[in-house]
Amino acid sequence: MNIKTTLLSSVILVALTACGGSDNNDSPTPPQSAKFSLGVSDAPVSGLQEVNVVFNSITLKQANGADNITFETRKADDETKPEMVNLLDYTGDDIFSLLDDEDVPAGEYSWLRADIINGDENDLTMTSHVVYEDGSIAPLVVKRKGNDGIGEIQLDGFTLNQTDNDFVLEFDLKKSLVDPQSSNEIFLKPRGVRLENLAESEDIEGTVSDALIANCETDNIALAAEDGSFGHAVYLYSSDIAEPLDNYEVTENETPVDAPLATADVVFDSDDNQYEFELAFITPGDYQLAYTCAAHIDDAEQRDEAFTLYQVKPVTVTAGDDLDVTFTISQ
């Protein structure tokens, strides 16, 4: 046996192994991938036939400083045109899909931004707009804009896991739609939009008794609209708020802690012959849920001193289960 040859071969083998190990250590670890889907839904508002929002693109900002990820949102039957969605067609837990199973890196994200093509009086059919019950049309405008004039709805902080990630943009139109009176435009405010993970949210559904509705209207007759009607709705609040109030704002992008987290209209279901409501995409936790017949006087920007909640009750949303709540006359 040639000991010198054997030793030399061993030295060469160790050296080659060391070089290979160094290359492997220097190679960057590829990011784990995730699937990302995004839909839109809304909690409706009275007085409108349509709320048409034109989505131009969706951008995701990675928390690690990597390049932003942008997806253009285009109509399925015409990829040259941005996607227009009538939010009133997708209420409660109904969802319109904007993005479906897109491949993105897993991990933390700083924000998601929806770029909206603002309403233009010269081209209302192709830009964001609302249609009133009398058929008249007004431009719908997001006041926060980029340098290109495109409206921006930016929502902070979320995580994408190494699996399917289904999210929804929930538009609470009672909180987000503002008629400035001094303009022929309707403003869409981002503070009325929530980004929710479907895997981490549940629905609150329920009924309001005829008797409770009648009592509320009788006790608040001074608040009736000119035609004698009332605005029936439920409002969701944090559990620790001592005095829940109506919708109002302190700053353009801030929702006060004592204002509702979410709202939903109470509507009459002729099939079930009862008044019903649904709050969709609610994160599990403790809350207060309130019924009011004064939603019609609730201005999204200003405190309404006459606004009143008729019945308030504590509720708990549990992961994996929708919650059923009944508002009725106390026994």
What is the residue-mean pLDDT, rounded to a whole number? 89
Sketch the major β-sheet. Answer: 10 strands, mixed
Domain count: 2
Question: What structural class do you assign from the helix and strand content?
Answer: mainly beta
Tell me the helix content. Answer: 10-25%
Q: Name the poorly predicted regions.
A: 1-22
Strand content: 35-45%
Shape: globular
* End-to-end CA span: 101 Å
Overall radius of gyration: 26 Å
Number of strands: 22
Secondary-structure element order, as H and E? HEEEEEEEEEEEHEEEEHEEEEEEE
Total DSSP helices = 3
Condensed summary:
The protein is mainly beta and 331 residues long.
Write structural notes for this entry:
The protein is mostly beta strands and 331 residues long. It folds into two domains: 33-198; 204-327, Immunoglobulin-like, CATH 2.60.40.1120. Helices cover 11% and strands 45% of the residues. The protein is built from three helices and 22 strands. It has helices at 3-26, 173-176, 210-219, and strands at residues 33-43, 48-62, 69-72, 74-75, 78-86, 96-105, 107-116, 129-132, 137-141, 151-160, 164-172, 177-178, 186-188, 193-197, 202-208, 233-238, 262-265, 267-269, 274-282, 285-292, 311-317, 323-327. The strands form four sheets. Strands 2, 3, 4, 5, 7, 8, 9, 10, 12 and 13 form a ten-stranded mixed β-sheet that branches. A four-stranded mixed β-sheet has the order 6-1-11-14. β18 (267-269) and β19 form a beta hairpin. The radius of gyration is 26 Å and the shape is globular. The N and C termini lie far apart (101 Å).
